[in-house]
């Protein structure tokens, strides 16, 4: 199953199909852009010394697509970027296969590099997609460090507001 959305300067997709890097690069290619930066997240074969056999992703797809769209819009407001494409896999993702691709184009490299770095951190922290790792001796749902960081920042902000009100 594939669900996608697009608008002026952005494209997002959540799919159970293999991700094609060339497709997303083409979506952000523009004559006015002198830089295309990208991030491809792949399944590695180990985690904390244990052999990883595969990953399996689950998503609340309509909300994931909406959140990816929101991230694209935030990228456009924070940086002078030309186009943004984000895609995430669901289902089984074997070792060496891509689970996430982010491609960003801009007139100059600094904007696209910074935007890409920000985008993967925010995607992992806020988009409702969950990862289960499979090992030879079992499996486990992966806790997301970025989500924990975001939650801690929110809690710290609330504590600061409470202190200021006192």
UniProtKB/TrEMBL annotation:
Its EC number is 2.8.1.12. Residues 145-166 are annotated as: Disordered. It catalyses: 2 [molybdopterin-synthase sulfur-carrier protein]-C-terminal-Gly-aminoethanethioate + cyclic pyranopterin phosphate + H2O = molybdopterin + 2 [molybdopterin-synthase sulfur-carrier protein]-C-terminal Gly-Gly + 2 H(+). Substrate binds at residues 108-109, 124, 131-133. Keywords: Cytoplasm, Molybdenum cofactor biosynthesis, Transferase. GO terms for biological process: Mo-molybdopterin cofactor biosynthetic process. It holds the Pfam family MoaE. Transmembrane segments: none annotated. SUPFAM superfamilies: Molybdopterin synthase subunit MoaE (SSF54690). Residues 152-166 have a biased composition (Low complexity). Gene3D superfamilies: Molybdopterin biosynthesis MoaE subunit. InterPro entries: MoaE_sf, MOCS2B_euk, Mopterin_biosynth_MoaE. It is an enzyme of class 2 (transferase). It comes from the Eukaryota. GO terms for molecular function: molybdopterin synthase activity. Pathway: Cofactor biosynthesis; molybdopterin biosynthesis. It is found in: Cytoplasm. GO terms for cellular component: molybdopterin synthase complex. Heterotetramer; composed of 2 small (MOCS2A) and 2 large (MOCS2B) subunits. Catalytic subunit of the molybdopterin synthase complex, a complex that catalyzes the conversion of precursor Z into molybdopterin. Acts by mediating the incorporation of 2 sulfur atoms from thiocarboxylated MOCS2A into precursor Z to generate a dithiolene group. Belongs to the MoaE family. MOCS2B subfamily. This is Molybdopterin synthase catalytic subunit.
